[in-house]
Amino acid sequence: MARAHLTLDPAFTIGPVRRRLFGGFVEHLGRHVYDGIYEPGHPSAGPDGFRRDVVELVKELGVTTVRYPGGNFVSGYHWEDGVGPVAERPRRLDLAWHSTETNEVGLHEFQHWLELVGSELMLAVNLGTRGPQEALELVEYANVPAGTARTAQRAANGRQEPFGITMWCLGNEMDGPWQLGHRNAEDYGKLASMTAKAMRQVDPRLELVVCGSSSRSMPTFGEWERVVLEHTYDDVDYISCHAYYEERDGDLASFLASGVDMDAFIESVVATADHVRALRRSDKRIDISFDEWNVWYLSRWLEQSRTFTVDDWPVAPRLLEDVYSVADAVTVGGLLISLLNHADRVASASLAQLVNVIGPIMTEPGGPAWRQTTFFPFSVTARAAQGSALRVALDADPVTTAAYGDVPVVAAAATFDGSSVSVFLQNRNLTEATSVTVDLGRFMPSRVVAARGVWDEDVHAVNDLRHPERVGLRSNDTAALADGTLTIELPPASWTAVTVA
Ligand code: AHR
């Protein structure tokens, strides 16, 4: 049996686990908003049209901050279309997803939904087809208390009090040729800088996210971050990272180890941001908003031949509805471990996305809502990861992967909130259990509170409409505590969280 040994010490911390690390993302895309969170006429919908069964699942998932309304969608979006009397709102073409946007849900409705689920709004502005003027009008509409035409418009639309939105994204994936208004780093950097300055003139409290590369595999990755930050360093707080992973060509070992790539991605962006800090002799530190991450079978989506015609613009088509397996959940657990291990520099992260569209929650129109496999590592981590992230001293046997060479058989992260230690473990061995010991002597542990996770004899098992509870959280009864040492046996290809009091 493979083995791994971890040593933890309360004095050795990475940094506080900021709650925004457990954010989500809702884009006007496919059946995410319409026929997802919003389905008037569904038996569980309230008078506002929002499905309460979905609200309950989102609450259970534990997302703290929700990025909205895109994504690629935002680069053609007119926020004004989504406010005012619903019956008078225009139907528009959504070029990003070749759909019709009905605008039944806009800023007010979405903020109301966030109040139902108990999450914070992270709002993106359109820097694709629009610019500083529209962005600062939106900040005025959303955040200025009263006394102007825009604030009077907000009040007339039913909201006297300002929304008080703090986190804002300066566009989306502006390096991507698929993006409406795609531009080079110089041009985007200048646009983002002038937009950020204008927005901050309206509300100096804003926390601003500038677009990093849309993935680490973009040819301009690294250089894009440097140039954009040279233009915006004094104007923004965070730079974005986006990463999607998938099992390619049946290479499960590499897929489970996707956290190795995420580690390298984060560390490269941190290095680039700190390089620009050095160039500018600045004391300010730019942190990361990892505002799109997940498993997404993107290559399947790109391979599908889609022919768009000028007369076919569906409302809420079924798009990007990946059905997730146990292996996908174990990988998501590994990515959460990577995020926790960079808690000092990753200030915020958004699981992309939330409902139906590459989401941990699925719905059927007129029918049920259920948890995908990826729901479980997220919901457990969002609750158990409290206090500070701890440095994990890890001594583990290797496992060989095609993509990353030899990697530790176990990926691990840990947190401590003053009374409980939570340890997050991923076993990357596909066929064998791994025996793990965790030296917790400095914490004087008393008992194992919980040890649960995701694994299955069939790593490709899924939850779907017919079998919505095929995969769930399992309890690991091998967890034991003796003389300050936790021992646990991790099943093959598994993700586990253990909390010790
Ligand atoms: O999450 C799906 C899409 O992925 C988003 O719209 C875009 O930002 C990214 O390319």
Description:
- With 501 residues, the protein is of the alpha/beta class.
- It folds into 2 domains: 18-384, Alpha-Beta Barrel (TIM Barrel); 390-500, Sandwich (Immunoglobulin-like).
- It has helices at 52-61, 107-117, 132-143, 149-156, 185-202, 223-232, 252-256, 258-279, 298-303, 326-341, 375-384; strands spanning 2-7, 13-16, 23-25, 65-68, 92-94, 99-101, 120-125, 167-170, 207-210, 238-245, 287-295, 346-352, 361-363, 369-371, 388-390, 393-396, 398-401, 405-408, 410-416, 421-427, 434-439, 448-454, 474-475, 480-482, 485-490, 494-500.
- An 8-stranded parallel barrel has the order 3-4-7-8-9-10-11-12, surrounded by 6 helices. Strands 2-15-19-20-26-22-23 form a 7-stranded antiparallel sheet, with helices on one face.
